[in-house]
Design goal:
Elements: H1 2-16, H2 18-54, E1 62-66, E2 72-73, H3 74-82, E3 87-97, E4 100-107, H4 125-132, E5 138-140, H5 142-148, E6 157-159, E7 167-171, H6 172-178, E8 184-185, E9 187-190, H7 201-204, E10 207-210, H8 217-221, H9 223-254, H10 256-264, H11 269-314, H12 326-337
Parallel strand pairs: 4-7, 5-6
Antiparallel strand pairs: 1-9, 1-10, 2-8, 3-4, 3-9, 5-7
């Protein structure tokens, strides 16, 4: 009760000086909003990179590819299967649809390793049948489905929430038609346990076994972009802290007589310090919650432009909508409390 009375006495200062309270809260809210907004943008982009790298087990499975890159004949796939290699063909390429690039990936569901099944064709056998039989169902992310549905030249489409944006999974025969690459494959997926084998002599001159990509190329290429964003967010947070520091310093100086009076009334220095810390923590929590919410709004409004920049600079496929992730919410609140 005594601590509560001390807290009410200290809080009376803010009732007499509402402009100072508004300056403190707005300064911390803006600082937190900019910091958490940048963290939200970075987190969404990196989650997209990880999802793209994990597609078809790219971060877990080795692959057989042409030396120097490019496509190679499907006859090489058949030769490896006859030689006992458990490989699965993939044909990938880009096609312009509705004025934007769409990554088309053709797979053979019957030979895909279990680790490569990072997308769901289902539910039900009917959907698998629709995927494999004419006119062959294509799978895309929900936002991509909304953008390209009804475009000419495409197969019937269905949404698959676990796919990255602007990516379509189809049967490899459909991919051959869409990419005008009949009788060709881009790579062969190979279980990592088989990666140590030597290719048959007839193929070793033009094919090679490549290890899994533990870290996506996009993430490495765009590190500087995200570092600049983080630096901008941190600088904005520091500028906001100067405003907060000035408001707190002014309030402390104005409350010196009150603090002396409380000490004269028998309030211990330890209790006074504890109550001041509780007051600051409460103000920081209120401003932090408002700042994180505002940061979400900032990030959601900027994400389409950031996604367009990443797509133009690095070819990254980042969704245009923001998902809530506990990591950047916690980071924003933590920064405001610290």
């Amino acid at each position: 009760m005594r601590a509560l009375a001390v807290l009410r006495a200290l809080a009376s200062h803010w009732r007499r000086h509402p402009v100072e309270l508004a300056t403190l809260l707005v300064g911390l809210m803006v600082a937190t909003a900019l910091w958490s907004g940048v963290q939200a943008l970075n987190a969404e982009a990196r989650a997209s990179y990880a999802r793209a790298a994990a597609l078809l087990g790219g971060d877990q499975l080795a692959r057989v590819a042409a030396i120097g890159g490019g496509r190679f004949a499907v006859a090489d796939f058949a030769a490896l299967r006859r030689a006992g290699w458990p490989v699965s063909p993939v044909l990938a390429g880009n096609r312009i649809v509705a004025g934007a690039s769409l990554q088309v990936i053709g797979v053979d569901p019957f030979t895909l390793p279990a680790e490569a099944e990072t997308f769901a064709i289902g539910p039900g056998a009917e959907r698998l049948s629709a995927f494999l039989t004419p006119p062959n169902l294509g799978l895309v992310a929900p936002e991509t489905l909304a953008r390209i549905s009804g475009e000419p030249g495409l197969p019937p489409l269905a949404d698959a929430a676990d796919l990255p944006p602007d990516t379509m999974i189809v049967d490899i025969a459909v991919a051959e038609r869409l990419l005008d690459a009949r009788g060709q494959v881009s790579r062969l997926i190979l279980a990592e346990a088989e990666a140590g084998r030597d290719l048959p002599a007839a193929l070793a001159g033009r094919l090679e076994v490549r290890p899994p990509e533990r870290s996506g190329d996009l993430e490495r290429l765009s590190d500087s972009f995200h570092l600049n964003l983080t630096a901008f967010g941190f600088l904005s947070f520091v500028v906001g802290l100067f405003i907060v520091y000035a408001a707190i310093g002014l309030a402390f100086e104005q409350r010196r007589p009150m603090l002396r009076t409380l000490r004269a009334c028998g309030v211990s220095a330890r209790m006074l310090t504890a109550v001041l810390l509780v007051e600051l923590a409460a103000l920081a929590l209120v401003a932090g919650l408002a700042g994180v919410a505002a940061g979400y709004g900032i990030a959601a409004s900027l994400l389409p432009d950031v996604a367009a920049s990443l797509r133009g600079l690095y070819g990254a496929r980042v969704p245009g909508s923001l998902s809530l992730q506990p990591s950047w919410w916690a980071a924003g609140l933590g920064m405001s409390l610290l």
